[in-house]
Amino acid sequence: MTPNDGSKKVDWFKGIFPALVTPFTADDQVDEAVYRELIRFVLPHVNGVVPCGTTGEFSSMTLEEKRQAIEVCLDEVDGRVPVLAGTGCQSTRETVALTRWAKDAGATGALVVAPYFLKPAFNEVFDHYKQVNQVGLPLVLYNIPQCAGTHYKWWTAEGMGLAFDNVVGMKDSSGDMPFFMAALEKLRGTIGLFCGHDEVAGLAMLAGADGAILASANIIPDIWQEIYRAAKDGDLEYVRQRHKDIQILTRLVVRKGGPQAAKESLRMMGIADMSNVRLPMIQGGEFEREDYEDMRSQLENLGKIGSQVVTLGGKEVEYTLPADLPPQFGDLSLCVGEGFAGPPFSEIAHIDLLLGWKDGPVGRALERARNEPRPGHELAIISERPLTMLVPTVTVRGAKARQLVYEEAASGVNLALEHAIAHHNLPEALLDDICLIANVFVHPAASIRRRVMINNYKAMRGAIRKALEGRPTLRELVAEKESARHPFRYAP
Amino acid sequence: MNEKPFRPGGVNPALVTPFAKDQSVDEEAFRALIRHVLDDVDGLVPCGTTGEFNYLTPEENQRLVQVAVEEARGKPVIAGTGAAGTKQAVTLARNAQEAGATACLIVCPYFLHPSDKGIYQHYYEIARALPNMPIILYNIPQVVDAYLPRRVVEDLADIPSIVGIKDSSGNLTYTMEILEYAGDRINVLIGHDEVVLNALAGGVHGMILASAQVYPEVWQQVMAAVRSGDLDTARALQRRVQKLSRIFCRYGGGVAVKQALKMMGVDAGRPRSPLKSVGGALIHEDRAEIQLELEKLGKVQVPDIQFQVPGGPLAGRFEGVGLDAETIHQEGMLLGSGSAGEGVEWVQIDLLCGAKKGPMGEAWAYQLTYPRHGFEALTTILEPNLTVRPSTLIVPANELKDLRQANMIYGPVQNAVAKALVTKLDEGVIPETAMQADVLFVQAAVHPQALDRRVLGRNAYAATCAAIDSAFAEGR
Fold first, then answer.
1. What domains are there in chain A, each with its CATH number?
2. Which stretches of A404-473 are DSSP H helices?
3. ipTM of the modeled complex
4. Which of A195, A450, A454, B169 has the highest count of CB atoms within 10 angstroms of its CB?
C-alpha cells in the first residue's frame, strides 16, 4: 500500500504570509480603510496573506465581521498573492459554513484551527477536519496549543495530513521543534509545512519548512522575506545573523500579546490610525507598557522609526518619534518619567527620573543634595554630560547591594543615556544645560547582576522618553484607571 | 482485611530541622522545639519535607529520628525516610527502625520520574526488606512533580505494613479518590495546611503539617469540632489560620516556619543552603506578614504603638518636605485635606499642589534626591509604568518602622491615591493644564497597625477625593 499517491503540495503555499491584524474603528467595527492600508504596506514583501488568523483576533469577531474582513482582504489583494482565510471555529458546523462561504468568496485556501475550548479527543478532531475537507477548498491544518489547548501528536498530524484530499498544508505555531521535526519526517513531500512561531521560524525554514505565517510579518515583512530567501538558498550564516537582529522583537510578539504588539508597532511605524486590540484583550495588558518601550527600541534599532526636527527646550533638535505621538513637548523645568522593567522579580528595576535645566528646580535640588552626606544613601554622579546623579531608593546595606546599585544599575542607566543620545531620544544640543536625577530601586534580594543592569537600562530608556514626551497621557490614564493592577495592593 | 500494625492519626507536626550558622544540625534546638510542641500533638514527624530531609546525610537522618524518639515521651515517631532511589530509601527506613521510630513516611520517588510500575516496586521492595516497619506513603506533587498514582496506592494498600498515606497535594479530588479506593485499608492523613477542615470533613484520619509546630492547638480544636459535628466552630478556626497556613504552604515551607518560630521565641535555626532564611522563596514582604498574623493569633506580643495624626493648620503640615506655611501662602499653592474610615483603617490625606517652576518644584525634586529614612517619598502610580500626572509624591506622615507598614502605603494607599487623582482629572476637578504645570505632595497618615488592605484602599480613595475637592474646587 502506498501511503500516499503523490504530493498534495500546491505552488502557492510557500514563503512569508503575515497573519494580518484586524483594525477596528472607534465604534468597534472592522476598519476597512486601515485594513487596506495595512495590506498595501505588507504586500510588496509577502507571498500571501492570512486574514482572520489568531493575530487577527478571529476569536473575538462575529461571523459577519470575519466575512467582511476576508472580503476586504480579497478585494485589496486582487489576486496578486494567495489569500489563506482563517475559517476555524469552535464547532464543526460553523467551521464548515464559514469555509464554504470562503470558497465561494474566492479565497485561495482556508486555515483551520484545531477546535478549541471544550477539548475534543483526537478522533473527534479528526472527524472535524474530515467534514471541513468535504467543502472542497484547500485546507491548512493549524496547530496552536498555546491557545487551542489541544496539541496535535505527530501521528494525528500524519493521519490528517494523509487522509484528507484537500489538506495541502499544516501550520505549526507550537514552537515545539521535536514535534515539528517529526511532522517534517512524516509529511514532507506530501503537504506543505509552515512554521507559525516567530522565535524559531528561521530555524524551521532551514530545517525544511516551506514558509511561515507570522504575527511579526505584519511589522517586518521585508526582513522575513530576506530570511525566507536566504533559507531557501541555504545561506545559513545570513539566516542566523538576521534572526539575531529580530530575536527580541519576535519574542515580544510571541510571548507578550501578539495582536497588540503588532498593532502598536504598526502605529509607531506610520499606520497611525491602527486601533488597539478588542476586549477582553487590552492595551497595557499582555503587551505591557515596558514591552512598548522595548519594542520601540527594537524598531529604532531596525530603522523602522525615523527621526524628525522638533522644538525642545527652545531649540530645534532631531528627535526619534513614533508616528502616532504628537511632536509637542513641555518645558524643561521639571520633567518626571517613571520606568519599570523586569523580570525576574528580584532583579526588577524601578526608576523615578527627574530631568530639567541645571538652573531650574532639578539642578538646584541636585546641587543641594550633592553637598549633604547621607550614610546608606550615598549619591553618585555617574555621568558628567549630561550631568546625572544616581540616588538609591532604599538604604544600601552590604557589599553585594553596593555593587548592584553603584556598578550594575549605574552602568545600565549610563548605557541608556548613551543609547538615548545615539538614537536621538535625548538631544545632543541640550546635554550641557540639563541634568538628571535617577532614583533607582534595586531589590535587596537581587542576585543576577546582568539582569539588574539590563532592567535598569530598559527602565531608564523608558523613563527618559516618558519624561520628555509627558507620557502617560490623560487618555491612557483614564482608560486604565479601573483595570490597573497595582502589584502591592493585595495581601499574600 | 489486613491487620495493620499501626494506625496513624491525630495532629502531627512535620518538624523543621534547625541548622546552626556553620550548617551543622543543631541538636539542642531540635530538642527544644520538640519540648515546645509535644503537649499539643499526637506524634512527631522528623525529617519530612519541612525538615529538609533531602539535605540530610543518612547519619544525620538517623540521629534526628533517635533524638525525636528520646524526646517523644512515648508518642509515635513517624520518621521521614524518603529518597530518590530505592536502595537509599531502604537504608534510611532500616536506620529509622533501629533508632526506634514507630513508622516511616516515604515520599514518592522523585527526579527521574519513574513509571507506575517503578513506583509500585519502590514501595514493595522497602516493605519486603523491612516487613515489621509500618510505612506511610506520601504524595506531594509540588516538589515531586508527579502524583503518587491512585491505582498504585490502591494496590499498595493491600501490603500489611503499609498503614497510611499522607496527601500534601491540597487537591481534594485526589484525596477523595484515595479515600474511596484505599480508605478502607489505610489511614489517610492530610498534609496541606490550607484545606485541613475540608479534608477532615471528607473523612481523613489525621494530619501531618508544617504549621502543627506553630499552632497545633488550633488543629486539635478543628479536629475535635469536626468530630463533634460542629462545623461552624471548625470553619471559624480554620479561617483564623488561613492566611498563615497559605504563607507556610506556598511561600517557603520550612523556611517560613522557622521564621515564625523565631518570632515566637523558639530558635529553630537556619535552613540549609541553597535555601535562604529570607529573600529567597520567602520574600521579606511575606515575612512581615507572618509577624502580623502571629500577633493576631496572640503568639507574639503586639508592640505598643504611638500614632500621631498630623494636626494644626494645614499649611504647617509640610515642613517635613521643606515647605513652610509662609512659602505655601506666598506662592499661592493649593491645600486640601480629607479623611475617611474608622479604627486602624482610618486614613487622613493632606494635599499640596504648586507650580513646578517655583519652590514647590525644588522641594519636590529634593525629596527624590534625599529619601528620608522611614519617610521615603514615592511617585504615584496606577501600576508600574503608569505614572499619574500631575506628578505626585506620596509621603508617609508618620515614620515607617517596618516593611509591613511600608507595604500598606506603597501598595493600597498608593493605588487609591492614583485612582482618585485620575478620577478627578477625568471629572475636570483637576484642570488638564495642571498635568504639565504642577506637581503635588500627598501626605498620607495611616495607622501603623492597619490590617485590611481593601478597606484601607477604599478609605484612602475617599480621603484623597475629599482632599482634591477641597484643594481644587473650594480652595482657590
1. 15-301 (3.20.20.70), 331-480 (3.30.230.60)
2. 410-422, 449-469
3. 0.89
4. A195
Determine, for residues A491 and B289 on separate chains, whether the beta-carbon distance falls below 8 Å: yes
Among 3.30.1370.110, 3.40.50.300, 3.30.230.60, 3.40.30.10, name the CATH number for the domain at B314-474: 3.30.230.60
Would you say domain B10-297 falls under CATH 3.20.20.70?
yes
| Contacts of range A409-412, beta carbons closer than 8 Å, 24 or more positions apart | A409/A349, A409/A440, A409/A442, A409/A452, A409/A453, A409/A456, A410/A380, A410/A382, A410/A456, A411/A453, A412/A349, A412/A452, A412/A453, A412/A454, A412/A455, A412/A456, A412/A457, A412/A458, A412/A459, A412/A460
Tens digits of residue pLDDT in B91-140: 999 999 999 999 999 999 999 999 999 999 999 999 999 999 999 999 99
Dig out the grid coordinates for B394 from the structure.
Answer: 506620596
**Catalytic annotation on A171?**
yes
From B123, B166, B251, B299, the catalytic residue: B166
| Helical residues (DSSP H) of A14-121, grouped into ranges | 32-42, 63-77, 92-105
Between A219-233, A347-361, A435-449, B365-379, the lowest mean confidence (pLDDT) is in: B365-379
Confirm or reject contact between B361 and chain A (CB < 8 A). Answer: yes
* Mean pLDDT (whole number) for A104-129: 93
- Cα distance from B28 to chain A (closest Cα, Å)? 31
Q: How far apart are CA B31 and CA A276, in angstroms?
A: 63
What's the mean per-residue pLDDT of chain A?
Answer: 94
For chain B, give every domain's residue range.
10-297, 314-474
As a whole number, mean pLDDT of residues B362-377 equals 89
CB contact under 8 A, A393 and B376: yes
Contact (Cβ atoms closer than 8 angstroms) between residue A265 and residue A219: yes
Could you give the CA distance from residue A235 to residue A231 in angstroms, rounded to a whole number?
Answer: 6
Does residue B166 have an active-site annotation? yes
